[in-house]
Amino acid sequence: MVDEDILKYLEGQLSEADSIAFEKQMSTDESLAKRVSSYKEMKSFAESKVPETDALIAAQKVYQKQKLKLAKTNKPKNSDTKQRPILKYLIPIAVAALVILGIFVTQNNSVSDQNLYADYFNPEEIGLVSRSDNNQNLLEEAENKFNQKDYVSAEISFDKLIGQYPGQDLYQYYHAISQLSNGKIEEARTTFNLLSNKDGFRNESLYYLGLSYLKEKDKVKALDYFIKIGNQFFRYDKVQEIIKHLQ
Amino acid sequence: MTSKDYIEGFTSGNQKVIGLFYENNLYKLTTWIEKNNGNAEDALDIFQDGVESIIRKIFSQKLPEDVKLEAYFFTSCKNIWLKRIEKKSKEDKVRISEEKKYTLDVTEVDNLDKDYEDDGLKRMMSETFSKLTPTCQKLVTLLEKETKADEIAELLNMSKANTVYRRKFACYKSWRKYLEEHPFYTKWKYKND
Question: Measured between alpha carbons, how far is B12 from A59 in angstroms, rounded to an integer?
């Protein structure tokens, strides 16, 4: 009996005679009965996935529209045209914010040097698992532990991932953040120094290198790293706060 | 739009909300990807990967509580992109040195734990289902929803309705194979014998 027949049986697509024959065979063939049972479970599970699939299909439709839109523009859109109007408003706001921040920082020295590390070591939540990953369990475990700020467990999970994918910079990066939190400063620094030479990790690594020196209260060295961070870094405002404080 | 609004829109498959999410966030990701060895098309693909990943997390209740969706989404996309360029650079290196085919490592399913015993079947189904290709996942689900074959063919870019049925059997067969390889399968089989 092939799998196709099992599906047809479950979906009521067999003739009455074939259906009876099928049931007869199933009553004597344990392995067939088991396969039928597996298929029943699969179909029931697939049914439970309908809302999720509907949502995915809706997203896919939006994606197709966006793809068409992009194809019409022929060339990848240069972001400048879109960015300028926003920047027009953002720049004065940012300047004002910096001035206010400056006043706040100079007048309010409640953030002691000792607290700087604790105040600024606040890694963003991460989402590592994507639809094409094979190692979803381990990735999920690492992701969850990291997001729960359980850096001891996160370090172990990322260590396992690095064992499987030694060249994966992303895992090295989150591993190093966990190590930094766990007090393994030198090991963390070695990784951040390597990553700071790579696209996509430069500013992030410089940030954590700076923090690693803050953790040891070495303000001079910390400043060396913070001032190298480029303004496209997503925490650039925080970096400016730290620099202002350190200076 | 708040994170809550977006999550609700994603959950209900509201194209308008998903479209807004695209409008409000695609540009930011495109800028970042263009600065990191990619182009607008790459950004669009990664964005979609990110959206699908968020939807899956919502339905599997794995999205962190009170998440700031846009920030979380942006980090996820960055990670997906960094993994992709790293994989690509590895593959290129392999090609250049004419080494053997680059293969992805496959992680074995972790050992059973206590909770596993309680909802082992559900988890086995979920884990094996996630091993199917995204097309297979959508296909079997749409069939269960009794969507017409023509419609499925159109949605999944298949040439004709016949292909839908051929793929259906192939998908289910792969799924059954994954089930039988799953550590919980023997236990489940034993329980049901």
Answer: 11
Q: Can you tell me the distance from the alpha carbon of B88 to that of A222, in angstroms, rounded to the nearest whole number?
A: 34
Closest CB to B55 among A59, A66, A129: A59
Q: Does ipTM come in above 0.85?
A: no
Q: Is residue A100 part of a domain?
A: no
Q: Are A29 and B121 in contact (CB under 8 A)?
A: no
pTM (2 d.p.): 0.55
Question: Residue A200 belongs to a domain with what CATH number?
Answer: 1.25.40.10
Q: Do A59 and A119 share a domain, yes or no?
A: no
Q: Is A49 helix (H, G, I), strand (E, B) or coil?
A: coil
Structure letter (DSSP) for residue B101:
P
Above 80 in pLDDT, residue A99? no
Q: Which residue of B has its CA nearest to A46?
A: B141
Question: Minimal Cα–Cα distance from B10 to chain A, Å?
Answer: 6
Instruction: Please determine, looking at this structure, whether the domain spanning B3-96 carries the CATH number 1.10.1740.
Output: yes
Option in B18, B40, B64 nearest A70 (CB): B40
Q: Which 3 state secondary structure label does DSSP give A58? A: helix
Mutate to test the interface with A, among B8, B83, B112, B133 (most CBs of A within 10 A): B83
Question: What is the per-residue pLDDT across B11-42, written as a single tens digit (0 to 9) for each?
Answer: 999 999 999 999 999 999 999 999 888 999 99
